[in-house]
Write the structure tokens for this entry.
Amino acid sequence: MTSPYVLVLYYSRHGATAGLARHQARGVEEVPGMEARIRTVPAVSATCEATEPPIPEEGAVYCTESDLRDCAGLLLGSPTRFGNMAAPMKYFIDGTSSLWLSGGLSGKPAGVFSSSASLHGGQETTLLSMMLPLLHHGMLLTGLPYTESGLLTTDAGGTPYGATHVSGTDNARSLTETECALARAQGRRVAEIARRLLQGAAP
């Protein structure tokens, strides 16, 4: 029997959101008895016949419906696209109607994370855009509380709605120590709540 896992599901074009996902996963695995399962989604194309290989050439493998259905918790990440989640992530979520109909995600904890090129590049609205379908699925949204001191000192990414990263216009800016710590804290928080719910305790 496999251990319960938190699904860390992200889309990343240049690697910034993928970097956050790895730190989220590290936070998840700091919680005893919980595992992190990292998955991504394929890009979408304006060319109708364009297809992606069934297994990506690099990075995480593509998410399946069972990966999502069987998770104990979810961490959802996307770069900003005009203040909204990226089209590949929206396309994937739009295909989860069967889980919505069955209530397969209802009552499970979830958090969101994002990255943008500039400090005010729509990070918070992107996080909110990802929360909406999760609310429709009946998930229990968790943010980052101000007990995480990094929220009070960050001069880069990090919001009470979820962990974020400012990558710079050339996508060359590395994650700061504070951004990494907040991402790990969010992963740990979702995993702790998932574990309590599995044990039948109040979160």
Notes: Residues 39 and 61 are 5 Å apart (CA to CA). The domain at 5-42+53-198 is CATH 3.40.50.360 (Rossmann fold).
